[in-house]
Design a protein that fits this description.
Four copies of one chain form a homotetramer.
Chain A (H helix, E strand, L loop, with lengths): L3 E7 L15 H16 L6 E3 L2 E4 L2 E8 L8 E11 L3 E10 L2 E11 L1 E2 L7 E2 L4 H9 L1
Antiparallel strand pairs in A: 1-5, 2-3, 3-8, 4-7, 5-6, 6-7, 8-9
């Protein structure tokens, strides 16, 4: 069974636009918030120093399909699962639920990188410790 | 030849994150800025009242692939073209260029809607006037 | 004793900037989140329809003093109190705490308004029901 | 005569909220955009490495008074001047104009800092080169 993780998130006023609904870009922020909470649930952070090197997880791609709008003060469930685990990358699938109904679904593909200041990002294998914790969830 | 439109956009400080690069969600805001400038170039706005009704363009989907990072004060070219013109929807393709090199590409699918306050969004055919102006570009 | 209200808020990655700290504008979003949670705690919303009219609370002023930076994944306490209650306006004072230490303090002055679409905002007396609930907290 | 600098900025859709006006926090982003354009006009950046050290300009305080709302596609003039030049800090005053009418005014107090990764921010005297360029404007 693939590892799953869920957060609950209320739509804030600053996230609405003049059409009276949550601006579509916020769904990507909410995916990221779920992803980062998932890392914390493993005892890790997306921003860590390991063996003296900064590790980060920039995105290869991001996508979202919008089924119904989200509105101010709606409480959303953001359900995340690890859809694919590559050697250096993770594919994360998201479902947004409002009152038990799916209103959007999305995907992030993210790659483990060495992020030394002043040097280009360099993809590296996902550290074993993180990999095994994802498997055990 | 498909209609094309280009804007130039500098990466602002508030758009960077602690990894020192533009946060990935901003590419979606930049796509939208190009789309809205395109509508203005046609003499229209994405937010109009026509025959007493508010017209809007919510998104059906949004996606982006990231090839290279964008950094503070980088000047990006956001190139947009109308990839597909349906009866009620538009598919817009975007290419982000930095110094002549593509650093990201994206897509928005957007649907023409009647947006009356307090009523659900309802998809409607793209008004003829807008449709013909897109064709003539 | 003045009415007080506190929320807890974790600093998200998208809220950091390339200096590695939370971008200063986020403190204003966090003030607003606390204010809106306070309204909900009274059984109200900052965006309501009363007697067929939309009521809103635009800002007259906003300010913040920054004492120490907030960083990714910091858990902040946002403490709010109603500092002054005018006939049409509220002055809200905020203190941001990290591990029991104040890292910032701010203020919002907000005015109760009739917000009819297409008409200018018009300040109105704070509805009695809201006023008395604020007093009773 | 105090040094002045002006940028022009169109209100974007993502900057509006469900009240149909620009969210109040955006005025702080626009102040920052004017400030950073001012630094560029001096041949500098708010984020520089000098003598091997990263220099940054975190905020001591930020404030804004709101006179009239800004709306989608409004074109605003953001006028900035250096109100006070301390040994380590700058006080910047801003006026927001729409069609020649002031709709908001604001202030940022910002302090020149050494920003070494992993070390606390440390206030330092404004480098002479920047100081003299500000004077000569």
């Amino acid at each position: 069974m693939p590892p799953e993780y869920t957060i609950t998130r209320r739509v804030e006023f600053a996230e609405t636009d003049m059409a009276g609904i949550a601006h579509f870009t916020n769904f990507f922020r909410w995916m990221e918030e779920a992803e980062h909470a998932f890392f914390r649930s493993l005892g890790h952070s997306v921003s860590e120093t390991r063996c003296g090197e900064d590790i980060g997880w920039p995105r290869l791609s991001a996508s979202c399909e919008y089924l119904k709008p989200a509105r101010f003060e709606d409480v959303l469930e953001v359900r995340m699962r690890v859809q694919e685990k590559g050697r250096k990358s993770l594919t994360l699938a998201f479902s947004f639920q409002k009152n038990g109904e799916e209103i959007a679904r999305g995907q992030l593909v993210t790659v483990c990188c060495r992020c030394s200041p002043g040097r280009p990002l360099e993809a590296i294998p996902i550290p074993d410790e993180i990999r095994s914790k994802i498997d055990r969830r």
